[in-house]
Amino acid sequence: MEYTTVEIVSCGGFCTGEDAERIAVVFGQGTKLIVSDAALPGPVLTVLPPSSEELKSNKATLVCLASDVAGGFADVRWLVNENSVTSGVITGSAQQQANKKFTLSSYLTIDSSEWENDKVVTCEVSAGGKAASVKIKKSECSE
Asked: Which residues pair with residue 102 across a beta bridge?
């Protein structure tokens, strides 16, 4: 469920009666409440290709670096040729930057043949209602 508008109630730190009932919210286990400002920019992404050394071992690990992530919660999604991939994905927890925003990294390991066959790899990150994506493929990378 997603709410796009919220009424702000201020009770000076202590609410009673109807105001208290209006702001009492019960969440189930695992529920995340993300309050964001529509004016916040989306995350900034950089995707790094696999190393030539690693490709010799028949594996290819791509790294997605996300910076300026608002709120510290982000959903990362990897796609290969527009197909969502969950196997071989490791995403670290967000770390706070000096500017109070967050940074995180995610790693996708695939067979080197997928990289060598010039498949398009996409990293998508959504946070605070904003999303960004970057596509990369071997033919567009310098050696």
From this structure: 69, 96
Strand ranges (DSSP E) for the chain?
44-48, 59-69, 75-80, 83-85, 89-91, 95-96, 102-111, 121-127, 130-136
CATH of residue 129's domain is 2.60.40.10
Domains: count for the chain: 1
Domain of residue 73 covers: 44-140
Residue 45 is predicted with a pLDDT of 96
Asked, for residue 33, whether it belongs to a domain, the answer is: no
Q: Which residue has the higher pLDDT, 89 or 41?
A: 89
Q: What is the pTM of this model?
A: 0.74
Mean pLDDT value of segment 5-20 = 54
Rounded distance between C-alpha atoms, residue 60 and residue 116, angstroms: 9
